Amino acid sequence: MTRTPLRPLARILRARERGEDPDEIEAENRRLRHERIQDRARRRAEGRLILMASCFILAFVTVGIRMGALASSEPSEPRAQVMSAQIMSQRADITDRRGRVLAMNLLTHSLYAHPHQMVDPVRAAQGLANIFPDLDAAELAEDFTSDRKFMWIKRKISPEQMQAVHDLGEPGLLFGPREMRVYPNGRIASHILGGSGFGNEGVSSAEVLGVAGVEKAFDGWLRDPANEGAPLALSIDLSAQSAMERVLASGMKLMSAKGAAGVLMEVETGEIVAMASLPDFDPNDRPRPLLKGDPSDSPLFNRAVQGQYELGSTFKIFPVAQALDLKLINPNSGINSQSPMKIGKYLIHDFHNYGPQLSATDVIVKSSNVGTVRIAQMIGAERQKEFLEDLGLFEPSPVEMVEAPTGQPLVPGRWPAITSATVSFGHGLAASPLHLATAYATVANGGRKVTPTLVHGRKRPEGEQVLSPRAAEMAVSMLRQVVTRGTARRAEVEGYEIAGKTGTADKPRPSGGYYENKVVATFASVFPASDPKYALVVSLDEPSVSTGGGESRTAGMTAVPVAAELVRRLAPLLGLKARTDVELPEISPRVVADVEPASTDAVKLVSNK
Q1: Percentage above 70 pLDDT, the chain
Q2: Helix%, strand%, coil% for the chain, nearest 5
Q3: What are the TM regions of this chain, as residue ranges (predicted)?
């Protein structure tokens, strides 16, 4: 800023020439300078006041807007931040499709010891052995009197056990808070849930980790704090699951079977409503896995997902449906059924000689191996392979379980004419009951591919059309006739229009060849046939039932009655009303006694050397 001099020389000289007092000039300039300084100070103060007033107004407006937003929002409880150790130990619940709890966390305690702080280690060891019978008093006493500073006694204890330990009055015995995973329904859905165990742990917390089933498959999601504890809703229905397990257990006992598996799936969505494998286990006390021998001997083995079985004549509908789709045949087409049929050095037989010709429908109804092979030959090996692959029978099931990749179907490496023939009636290709249920659901879904899932309500992309709706409808109609007049008459349940196919396959020996008296009996079905809603597969491992004529192992006498009872129990639980306008076929006692010949579905390849 340029300062004006108080006594400018030019004005002073002019004032003296005119006889004026120069001091008046200085006084006037001093007064003007003070006025300018005061004006600048006043403007600065006014600016500061305006700025402060603006800040206060902005603050009040912000507070007012926030208060208005809070007043118009729904009230909620405040959520305090939790420590990382607490986050690590939290795990979301698992529920069924109706919100019923299948797995949850329960607050409990762990028990550990500081031996150097004990007053009477021997007495403490004896007291603990009395409370926990699985502990050895001598071993505990030896540990307590050693140089150890810390040792675990029990990872989890009940409130009653905690009180009993507390009553010992030993200062060296301490408790830590712990969350444990609880399965309130015990064995129900044990293979689906899998089980859990402890990961990283300390005296104040422990990490709960999934070890199998959906607990393992969704481990990260269940432990993710971002989900805010939202439960994982599975597609299974607890009531249907419980009913399936009870019926399968009774059927397994009645049929003297080694094991059993069942899958109930929604046709349209692929959601698994119930899936069971027997024998099972209690995930609250998960047994140790077998280290040697046959994995299927362990209750941990999931036959529905991991089992690799030749599923016999249940496969016969696939080449027939494909031929219908390709317009190579229609349901009334005559098929050469003259038995035996020669392929290379092998002969393929039917149990009965059905004469020179059967209709395509009767090939399925009577379960003709020869007729099925004739139809497969029309299709050709390459197209047959492509269709079976489209049905998902060449790859592990995509269901959300860690066990699913271990259920890789056993597919022939080469596909000569004899392989194409045997695969057409369910031999030479081994898959799981879940694979079979998925394939039948695809046929029942108008030929649109179904992807199995254990998660309820999740939107999934629409599957590809692997079979025309018309061919799929005709295939279901053929399967319906298998129940009304074919090998699955015992599956008829009044009002529910079951459509399905039996399959009895000899079990392969580990050393090669097949057992003569060990089979896997399977019944694959959909219902109601007029508007399919569900696919149901029942499989029994090594069944045998006494009949009037001796002993039978066929699916028609073993798996089929179990499946019929399942439909009777499950249909009302699923909200399906029995149709009263369905006409049931009359079945004479003589026909019922011969529902399915002992070797109808068996592979009969005889070397022609």
Answers
A1: 91
A2: 40, 20, 40
A3: 49-69
The answer as to whether 227 is a domain residue is: yes
**Is 329 a member of any domain?**
yes
Find the domain containing 140 and state its range. Answer: 84-233
| Pair type for strands 545-547 and 309-310 | unpaired
Please indicate, yes or no, whether residues 196 and 246 belong to a single structural domain of this protein: no
pLDDT in tens, 519-552: 999 999 999 999 999 999 999 999 998 877 778 8
Whether residues 154 and 249 share a domain: the answer is no
User: What's the pLDDT at 581?
Assistant: 64
Give how far the C-alpha of residue 565 lies from the chain's centroid of Cα atoms, to the nearest Å: 25
Residue-by-residue DSSP string for 457-482:
T---PPPPB-S-HHHHHHHHHHHHHH
Q: Side chain identity at 290, as an amino acid letter?
A: L
Contact 261, 309 (CB under 8 A): no
Query: In this structure, are residues 562 and 508 in contact, taking their beta carbons and an 8 Å threshold?
Result: no
226 with 356, same domain? no
pLDDT tens-place string over residues 118-166: 999 999 999 999 999 999 999 999 999 998 899 989 888 888 999 999 9
Q: Does residue 126 sit within a domain?
A: yes
Tally of domains in the chain: 3
Q: Are 425 and 373 in contact (CB under 8 A)?
A: yes
Give yes or no: residues 196 and 249 share one domain: no
Distance of CA 299 to the CA centre of its chain: 18
Residues 408 and 341 in one domain: yes
